[in-house]
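All the exercises in this workshop are built on plain-text protein records. Sequence and backbone structure share a record, each on its own labelled line. The structure tokens are whole numbers drawn from a learned vocabulary of backbone shapes. The record below serves as our worked example for the rest of this section.
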Amino acid sequence: MKARDIVRARGHPLIQGIHPTTFEVTRDETLTLSGDCIIGVAADKGAADLDPGLKAVLCDDRAVLTTRLIAGGQTVEVRSRGSAALTLDHPADLVWRRSDFVSDRTVGIHADRVAAGLPREFIEALRRGEELVVELEAEIPEGS
């Protein structure tokens, strides 16, 4: 079983991309320096708005989530996992986490990349306000 969705956001001059355990995309229009995990603002979706088919797949402990972050002509791929504990009902935020912590904002756990691990050229493009396209593709591998 496989499902997809796309979230569109944009960068912001205060994007730092230095958080060691998460990264976040938010519907909020602005951010402060304390939001060091945020890599995209003014998103067209929060967790609650994701495609129902994608949400159904993500809420399975076997789910594998591949997220492609596209901005400034660069693509960064992030692999994470779904969880039966996900609620995916936050109206504004989408958060990928290195840990297995789950909240209403969490879309992926055990992420292989976090804000601090994103290429600095990618973060610079976001600081220039480039559009950020977030492609999410979740699947439950056959035989799992």
About this structure: The longest strand covers residues 2-10. The mean pLDDT is 97. Helices lie at 52-58, 120-127. The two ends are 11 Å apart (CA to CA).
